[in-house]
Amino acid sequence: MQKNKLTWWMTGVAVLLLVLLGILHLTFPRTFVGFTISSNMVYDVLLSLAGIAVFVRFFTTTHQDNWSYGVFLFALMLHNVGLYENTFFGLGFDRYMHFVGGLAAALVADRLFANERWGRVQRFLLIVLVPLGCGAAAEIVEWFGYATFGAGDGFLLYGAGDIGEWQNASLDMFSNLVGALTVAVWRVTRKS
Fold first, then answer.
1. Measuring CA to CA, which residue among 189, 64, 180 is closest to residue 121?
2. Is residue 3 predicted with pLDDT exceeding 70?
3. Cys-Cys crosslink for 82: which of 36, 49, 136, 190, Cβ 3.0 to 4.6 Å?
4. pLDDT tens for residues 157-187?
């Protein structure tokens, strides 16, 4: 699929919002009405901007579409807003974040292999296993960040949303699995 005006508009809006969030994190490091604003989150904003640049660069060659790109951007925005200290409907925000991350990774994986002639079982496994691998890698990076940099807010630090060592990693990966299963079931049951 080719990049179009919508792709560029989504990119522009996402970059603008991330830059504003980065400025907010640097300028007002505190908790404000349920949002955690921390200077440590600036690194997450920079990683997100790099992720957008890579995604846009390989958009066409990896067969992505605006749907997979939009969910990817939504996951990045959700992560960088800083709602990790909140609970919604009895679940911590981190559970929702990992669900959306699983959705995004599954959609990107599905589009990445869109031209492959695979059966439903193979496609189902691909759509589930790629996000699980990405989620496991993210948990390892989080652990490495915690072991290296300690506590605080952001992807490389142990902070709000991290509820306790192995339990946190397990719940994060389970939430990734639920997001991936949502896409996998949708993809293999739709007609096309």
1. 189
2. yes
3. 36
4. 555 555 566 677 888 899 999 999 999 999 8
Q: Is 91 helix (H, G, I), strand (E, B) or coil?
A: strand
Cβ pair 126, 113 in contact under 8 A? yes
Strands (E), 20-176: 30-32, 35-37, 87-88, 91-92
Determine the structural domain holding residue 117 and report its residue range. Answer: 5-189
Give the CA distances from residue 21 to residues 8, 99, 163, 166, in Å, rounded to whole numbers and listed in that order: 20, 22, 25, 30
Checking if the pLDDT of 191 tops 70, the result is no
Longest dimension (CA), the chain: 52
C-alpha to C-alpha distances, 143 to 136, 140, 161, nearest whole angstrom = 11, 5, 14
pLDDT at 35 over 60: no
| SS3 (DSSP) at 79 | helix
Which two tokens mark 121?
A: 């079982």
Q: Which residues contact 56 (CB under 8 A, 6 or more apart)?
A: 3, 7, 11
**In the predicted model, what is the mean pLDDT of residues 122-151?**
85
The CA angle 27-83-152, to the nearest 5 degrees, is 65
Q: Which residues contact 58 (CB under 8 A, 6 or more apart)?
A: 64
User: In total, how many domains does the chain have?
Assistant: 1
